Protein: Adenosine deaminase
Organism: Edaphobacter paludis
Amino acid sequence: MAKRSTKRDPEIDVVDWLRKLPKAELHLHLEGTILPQTLVELSRRHDAEPLTLESASELYKYENFLGFLMSFKAVTERLRGPEDYELITYNMIRELAAQGVVHAEVYISFGIIYYWKKTEVEPYVEAIERGRLRGEQEFGTTVLWIIDAVRHFGTDEAAKVFRKAAELQPKYPSIVGIGIGGDEARGDASLFRELYAEAKQAGLRLTAHAGESVGPESIWSAINIGAERVGHALSAQDDPELIGVLAQKQIPLEINVTSNIRTGCCADFDEHPLRHYFDSGLMVTLNSDDPPMFGSNLLEEYILAQERYGFTLEQMRELAANSVEASFLPPERKLALLRLVEQYGW
């Protein structure tokens, strides 16, 4: 077999090449995918004085992490009924497909429904499933759900979220796993060890946000309770031993470059460890987190990685393959997508 050339064809439109590169998104929050245009539609449904596109766009502007939380609240408080969740699910899949995303694993916060809306989640799950099925049929991008608990709400609340996910999974096989987000400093992963073991026993896959805003000890804790993937893992760079373990075990990392900059968890793009992680042999995947909130979708993260961090197109293909390999898809679907990535562009 002829050896592939890794030299760039001067005729290649790199942005278009990256757009069409088959890839998966593994760290994306459903509630954080609402575009200003969709927010206007939600506002027309619920607000006495609906937002204009200009006033809606203003809600996405902020100066710091506290401002981000306020922006997130201003946007998501317009998610009222199940039909709103159906709308944002369908729109999310449409946007993903336009970026060349063939599969996504998306976080849903049952806590927002339980604790803010004071209601049961079943009608909302039915709604997002309607949106998912319609979106998958029309655009071809598949979606699995990861049910996220807010760690600083404590273990009782997390138990309710995880057990509901396990209860619903037989009816909705698209519910594939669980995770913990929220304030790492107020909810060490070790507190959730028994709940993670219970979720695993129930057949759920395990993820955890870790090392985004605190040190590498948070990542160690996530690994020690069985997390199969780690979201952010920004502070792993501060612990050479941890880097070695992550490389040896090939634990996938859900990297979110622009998110880390916009939240202030990383000072600037030049200090971000993405390239260091890749060169150290870590299982790196690129993700967008909350695209409209951070001003960068997955395609733009791929463009950023290629342009700012000097990844070759062959290395970009490797990142795309990592995203498929690290997914929770069944083996046959995973192999089919890996073949698409392998055969792309040659």
